[in-house]
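Hey, I'm writing a tutorial for new members on how sequence and structure tokens pair up, and I'd like a real worked example in the thread rather than a made-up one. If someone can provide the structure for the chain below, I'll link this post from the tutorial.
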Amino acid sequence: MDLAERNAELEAENAALRAAVEALEAGLEALRRRVDKHSGNSGKPPSSDSLAQRDDQNDERVSRAERRRRARAQAKKLQAG
């Protein structure tokens, strides 16, 4: 086998592997989107959330007092500036 034949063989194999990787990456992205869905960003009921998702949602929640504090600080900045 000469170098030109070997090169052509390797290029074909490389193209096939690249196509396979691209297909796998697309599938992985679809799975990630599916796993990342929870009741806060889809039409799913809260009871379908996993415990980890519920814990993350609780960590993201801000109390009413904290929201008010932030709003007052923002208003104060706007008045001063």
